[in-house]
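User: I'm preparing a small set of examples for a lab meeting where we compare how different chains pack in three dimensions. I only have the primary sequence for this one, and I'd like the structure in token form so I can line it up with the others. Please keep the answer compact; I'll paste it straight into my notes.
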Amino acid sequence: MTVADLVETSAVELRRLIGARQLSPVELLEACIARIERLNPFVNAVTATCYERARAEARAAEQAVMRGEPLGLLHGLPLGVKDLEPTAGLLSTMGTPSLRNHVPAQDIELVRRLRAAGAVVVGKTNVPEMGAGANSRNPVWGATGNPFDPNLNAGGSSGGSAAALALDLLPLATGSDTGGSLRIPAAKCGVVGFRPSPGVVPSVRKPLGWSPISVVGPMGRDVADACLQLAASAGAHPGDPLSHPLDAMAFLRPGEVDLSRLRVAWTEDFGLCDVDPAIRRTMHARMAAMSGLFAACDEVRIDLGAPQDVHRCFDVLRAEAFVAGMREAYERDPSSLGPNPRANYEMGATMSLLDSAWAQTEQTRILARFQKVFEGYDLVLSPTTPVSPFPWTQPFAAEIDGRPQANYYRWLALTYVVTLTTHPSITLPCGVDPQGMPFGLQVTGRFRGDLALLGAAQAMESAFAADQTLRRPRPDIARLRPAVPALDSIVTAPPDDRHAHLPTEAAAASVV
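Assistant: Understood. Below is the structure token output for the 512-residue chain.
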């Protein structure tokens, strides 16, 4: 197997080869490091790294295999950790200057679980500052470019993870999602991002433990790889009061699904989201191409309530999370927060208990309204993003189809309306848009129907693979060129060394 073949092999197959003593974790790690060193300069997906520690862990993983010891689900698999998750002994900056030298002493629970399952942490993956927005650029590490065109954005806030997976830099990478931070970058980079139901994977970082809008979840180059990471990370933890006991191993085998028995509803815009006409046409073409897969594939009108109320509901709930996570930092020094985190905090600081109570009540109504679709259908399909990837130098989509967007995240409405319903949702690569960039199909399942959704997603992925217009697109490595301007051009004062381990007492904020 060549190095290229090795890094392009699925995480599930790599784990099988390691367990069968047909692949050394050391060989796999070195192949990933070589790939990162070669291709990461084009996209800036991987930020701080810990190669020497990873090499020591890979050698230990190899020895465990040779001794015949029990092996974890992720034994010997290299892992990239989104730079919102504190990671022991590794720069964890959240992309914000105040944490430029922050090296946590302990892993957060998500990272601890993945490492306990045998994963080898190689480095952090890039994010927008403090996870605010869907363009992964920040003043510490710079911007992440799209693997299909490094001059365009990779989405966010899990943009570094999505780009790393798309270029086969790493077989595993983590993500998190409030308004679409798993789904949007996965769609823009042509990989899979799964937003599980709240509490499936414990999120101990969120400051509002009882809020369902922020979750952590897996990304992967295919559905099975996402399921592998999910199985290693799911289950109860008291740090997340919404988490609950479950059979995590069930995610490894979500079950075969006969698509011909499923009734599918689809929508361009949920009746309230601005969507570019080219994306609408692409969605229509995709539905025509796949309609024969299902028992029914119907365009439906979805009523989630008055558009202004749905948007305002998300505004309030999102702002609450930023106020909870950033109050101390803001009161100490407002200038320590970047423009997006600061805007969210200041929006929330003007809100009242009446606003909060109204938003909680409205979200409950939105959930109830959404159930009506599932009285006749098993899945809801929609575009994941309303526009093709735009230049990363453009902070956000300020206008869609001639309509100005109310704020820097309003263009994420296709994903955040699903967030408000609390239903599980996955984005699948589904061919390319008219610009030749990946088109992501958002597939939303029934309330708490994570296993059924994953089973359907695997079946859809398999069906798509046989159709040139539906299959996952792959970036052309030979055509990669440096971005103009350079991806690190917005960095004001980068850390002295991507591999540095500098102790600090700084504490990370806790907003997804």
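A couple of notes for your slides: Residues 307-332 form the longest helix (26 residues). The two ends are 39 Å apart (CA to CA).

User: Perfect, thanks.
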